[in-house]
Design goal:
single chain; 11 helices; 12 strands; 314 residues; five-stranded antiparallel β-sheet; Rossmann fold; seven-stranded parallel β-sheet
C-alpha cells in the first residue's frame, strides 16, 4: 500500500541530426511546473547534447561513449536505479538516445524496473533528409528500425520541404510504422500530452534476454565511428565554416561548442545533411571548444579532420 507510483518514461530517438535535442529543449521550456529529469547519451567521448540541454534543466544525467542499448547498458541500468531511489522522484524521465541507437531496445531496459511506466517511444524524423537516409546502404536499415519501433513519430524540419514533400514523408513513415501517431514538430514544438498522457504497452520480446536478432546485434554501427576535437584556442569563423563544409571524409554528423576569436560567447555548431548552423549559445557558457565528428572514416580520415580543424584556428 505504501508503494510509490511509477515514473512516466519517454524514450526520444531518431537518426543523427533529426532534431532530438531541440525537441527536448522545447519540452523543458514548456514543462508547466513538472519536474523533468533527462538522461542523455551521445555517440562519442564528449556529450555535446547534454551541454545543450543543461542550459534548460539542472537535472541532466549524461552517458558517453557508445549507444546506451549495446555499449553501456549497465551504466544506463545503474542510472535508472539511482533515479528510482530518489526521495523526490521526477514527474517525468526522458531518455535521449544517441543517433545510432535503437530506441525500442532502450525502452526495454527501462521496463526491467517496475519503478517506471513507458509512456512513449518518440522518434524524430528529419523531413528534408529521411528519404536519402533510408536509401543509404550504410545507415538505411538502422533508420528504418528506429522508425518502426516508434509509438509517436515527430516529423521535424518541415520548413525545408514543400507541402507535397511533407506529405510524402508522412506516407513513408506511416508505411514503416503503421501503428505510430505521426505529428509535425514545427521548430521542435510538440504537445506536452505526448510526453505525459499516453501510456503504451511494453514492447514485445524479452528485453535484455532477447535473441541476437536485429541490426544492433548483428552489425553494430558497421563503418561508423566518432572522434572528438578539443582546443583552448579560438577559431576564425570564416575558416571554420570553410573547413566544416570541405571535410575530405564521409561525414554523417558534426556538432559542438566552439569559441570564436572575435566573440567571447560560446557558439553551438551543427553540421548534418549538407546543412550547417552556427549560432551563439542561448545561455552563454564558458570553456574550451569541443567538437564531435561522426561518420564513415578510418584513422587517416580522422587525422585529416583534425588537420582541417587546426587550419581553422585563429
Amino acid at each position: 500500500m505504501n508503494a510509490r507510483p511509477p515514473i512516466p518514461l519517454v524514450v526520444v530517438g531518431g537518426y543523427l541530426g533529426a532534431g532530438k535535442t531541440t525537441l527536448l529543449n522545447r519540452l523543458l521550456a514548456n514543462a508547466q511546473g513538472l519536474r523533468i529529469a533527462v538522461l542523455v547519451n551521445d555517440f562519442g567521448e564528449i556529450n555535446i547534447d547534454a551541454a545543450l540541454i543543461r542550459a534548460r534543466s539542472d537535472d541532466v544525467i549524461q552517458l558517453e561513449n557508445g549507444c546506451v542499448c549495446c555499449s553501456i547498458g549497465g551504466r544506463l541500468a545503474e542510472a535508472l536505479v539511482a533515479i528510482a531511489d530518489r526521495d523526490a522522484r521526477p514527474d517525468l524521465l526522458v531518455i535521449e538516445a544517441s543517433g545510432v541507437s535503437d530506441p525500442q531496445r532502450i525502452a526495454q531496459i527501462g521496463l526491467l524496473d517496475p519503478a517506471f511506466r513507458l509512456n512513449a517511444v518518440l522518434v524524430a524524423v528529419d523531413a528534408a533528409a529521411v528519404h536519402d537516409s533510408l536509401r543509404d546502404p550504410l545507415v538505411g536499415e538502422m533508420v528504418r528500425q528506429q522508425i518502426a519501433g516508434a509509438s509517436v513519430v515527430a516529423v521535424t524540419k518541415t520548413d525545408l520541404c514543400d507541402a507535397g514533400g511533407a506529405a510524402a514523408v508522412a506516407e513513408a513513415v506511416g508505411t514503416i510504422a503503421p501503428r505510430a501517431t505521426v505529428l509535425a514538430a514545427r521548430d521542435g514544438h510538440m504537445p506536452l500530452s505526448v510526453f505525459i498522457d499516453a501510456a503504451m504497452p511494453a514492447p514485445t520480446g524479452t528485453g535484455l534476454l532477447q535473441s541476437h536478432s536485429g541490426w544492433h546485434r548483428s552489425t553494430p554501427h558497421t563503418g561508423i565511428r566518432s572522434i572528438a576535437y578539443q582546443t583552448g584556442r579560438g577559431f576564425d569563423k570564416a575558416r571554420l565554416r570553410h573547413a566544416l563544409s570541405t571535410l575530405p571524409v564521409r561525414l554523417l554528423r558534426a556538432k559542438g561548442l566552439v569559441r570564436l576569436a572575435a566573440d567571447p560567447r560560446l557558439h553551438e555548431v551543427h553540421v548534418v545533411g549538407g546543412r550547417m548552423r552556427m549560432r551563439p549559445l542561448a545561455h552563454g557558457g564558458a570553456g574550451e571548444s569541443a567538437l564531435v565528428f561522426i561518420g564513415a572514416f578510418d584513422a587517416a580520415g580522422a587525422d585529416s579532420i583534425r588537420a582541417c580543424m587546426a587550419s581553422a584556428l585563429a
